């Protein structure tokens, strides 16, 4: 009995040793290479390479004609001007760094200002042209509101013989008329300023970049209406002024783009123009007898053609040095 128990214990111990040997990991023999570790998860791709500036010479390899024509324009000054930091890379001043575009020829890898939104394109131009003189440097009023871009009026890559911006009056008028069609049609009326004859341009009276008043009108003599640049004899100052001239300006009575009246008045007859203000108020006496808007004296029979033409008597309608009623 005792011998059988001892034999059973020896058998149990042998079984435990065999089980432990199976669970223990195998140790590689000396000189045997160890197993390679499991492959790590792939890293996410990094940011795309950043474009760098290549210089104008690199652009000229493919765009030889454009670079050659560009040298004839005013913007060529960027190529040698170190003040703004674009010397030697004038192309990339507007189009951005072009290293990726140069390697791949991918049009999406370069900026084309003409295909940008108007605000983005204008901001690129204003990097250099901001805070300059009144003729350039700001785009406000109607052109900014209507999202007009610089390249709609200016040709950055002009062809041989073409200008960055038009200076000839007929071409300026044709360019403005592409958008301002109703104004252009007004110059087909019988009496107009001589734009159709090429003697005047829209920019003689309007500043397309920086308006100083209604409709971007220019000013004369510091703060006078632009009309007095040509009509200086009506500038004044007068001892007795016609109030609308000082308070509302010339367009209170005149329409500058075209009219059916020889004096380019807002109405076809001078009397009708005057009665827009000088009517509707009771007759006044004493010191206020000459007040604006009062009913004229009884001898003003408005049925008479002579009386209907107010300037028959009131000839100094813009202002007088000697007569309060503007008759002389």
| Percent helix range | 25-40%
Strand order of the largest sheet: 1-2
Helix and strand string, N-terminal first? Answer: HHHHHHHHHEEEHHHE
Helical segment tally?
Answer: 12
Shape: elongated
Q: State the oligomer.
A: single chain
Biggest β-sheet description: 2 strands, antiparallel
Give the N-terminus to C-terminus distance in angstroms.
158 Å
The structural class is mainly alpha
Q: Based on DSSP secondary structure assignment, what is the total number of beta strands?
A: 4
Describe it for me?
α2 packs across α3. It contains twelve helices and four strands; from the N terminus they run αααααααααβββαααβ. The chain is mainly α. The chain has helices at residues 2-23, 56-62, 64-70, 90-95, 99-104, 118-129, 141-145, 169-177, 181-186, 243-247, 270-274, 305-308; strands at residues 219-220, 224-225, 240-241, 319-320. Among the domains are: 56-111, no CATH class; 236-320, no CATH class. The strands form two sheets. A two-stranded antiparallel ribbon has the order 1-2. The chain has a two-stranded antiparallel ribbon with strand order 3-4.
């Amino acid at each position: 009995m005792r011998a059988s128990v001892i034999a059973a214990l020896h058998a149990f111990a042998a079984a435990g040793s065999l089980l432990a040997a199976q669970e223990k990991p195998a140790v590689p023999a000396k000189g045997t290479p160890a197993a390679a570790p499991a492959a790590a998860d792939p890293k996410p791709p990094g940011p795309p390479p950043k474009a760098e500036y290549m210089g104008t010479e690199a652009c000229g390899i493919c765009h030889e004609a454009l670079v050659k024509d560009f040298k004839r324009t005013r913007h060529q000054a960027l190529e040698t001007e170190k003040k703004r930091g674009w010397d030697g890379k004038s192309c990339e001043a507007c189009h951005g760094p072009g290293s990726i575009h140069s390697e791949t020829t991918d049009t999406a890898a370069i900026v084309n200002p003409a295909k940008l939104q108007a605000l983005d394109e204008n901001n690129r131009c204003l990097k250099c042209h901001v805070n300059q003189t009144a003729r350039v440097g700001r785009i406000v009023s109607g052109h900014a509101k209507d999202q007009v871009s610089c390249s709609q009026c200016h040709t950055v890559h002009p062809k041989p013989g073409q200008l960055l911006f038009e200076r000839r009056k007929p071409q300026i008028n044709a360019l403005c008329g592409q958008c301002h069609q109703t104004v252009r049609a007004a110059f087909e009326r019988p009496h107009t300023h001589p734009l159709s004859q090429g003697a005047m341009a829209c920019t003689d009276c309007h500043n397309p970049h920086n308006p100083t008043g209604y409709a971007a009108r220019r000013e004369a003599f510091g703060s006078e209406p632009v009309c007095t640049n040509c009509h200086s004899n009506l500038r004044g100052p007068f001892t007795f002024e016609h109030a609308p001239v000082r308070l509302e300006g010339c367009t209170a009575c005149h329409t500058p783009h075209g009219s059916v009246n020889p004096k380019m008045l807002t109405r076809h007859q001078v009397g009708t123009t005057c009665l827009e203000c000088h009517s509707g108020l009771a007759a006044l006496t004493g010191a206020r007898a000459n007040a604006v808007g009062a009913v004229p004296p009884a001898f003003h029979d408005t049925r008479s053609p002579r009386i209907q033409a107010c300037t028959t008597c009131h000839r100094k309608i813009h202002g007088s040095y000697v007569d309060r009623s503007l008759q002389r």
